[in-house]
Amino acid sequence: MNNDFFKQYSSEIIGSLLCLFAGILSGYLSHTGDTTWYQTLHKSDFNPPLWAFIPVWTVLYTMMGVALGKIWNYQNQNNNLLLLFMIQFTFNLAWAPLFFKMHRVDLALYDIILLWISLAILLILIIMAKNINALFMILLPCFLWITFIAALNLNIYQLNPESNNPSYLKLYENV
Questions:
Q1: What is the domain range of residue 152?
Q2: What does the pLDDT look like over 107-117, one tens digit per residue?
Q3: Which pTM value belongs to this model?
Q4: In angstroms, rounded to a whole number, what is the distance separating the alpha carbons of residues 58 and 64?
Q5: What angle do CA 123, 105, 167 make, to 5 degrees?
Q6: pLDDT of 86-140, one tens digit each?
Q7: Number of independent structural domains in the chain
Q8: Is residue 70 one of the residues assigned to a domain?
């Protein structure tokens, strides 16, 4: 029975492992656990504590992996879904290094806007496709979370204008 389960859901399992690994690697390389800089930022009252992001992202990366597996299975019907998934996932992985590693709140905001747009287009294409409603329901929580993260990023951008002017640009202000 276990062998049948793996055969039936192998692409979803592999997709989940790939997305989880990529997400963990992105977070690790971005030093998201280093909260010194993040704690100095002005944030709104609706900003959750940093520890709350880990379980949410773990679940969402798993769900994205299931979606990737399902899209892989449907790639003969609509190859654009796979391309759009990879585009949005690339933007997703780029956000943490921009925000946490480079401390570029502005670039992270632009990135998450592109992520939101690419994920919205992906969801629209999924709605237009036939017989893959489950895929929409799997990615909808990701879209809602990205919307929330975009709002947080925008809020931090607005509350911390000094973070939008990287130190290497400050060297040239008086020239």
A1: 2-35+47-165
A2: 999 999 999 99
A3: 0.87
A4: 10
A5: 155
A6: 999 999 999 999 999 989 999 999 999 999 999 999 999 998 887 678 899 999 9
A7: 1
A8: yes
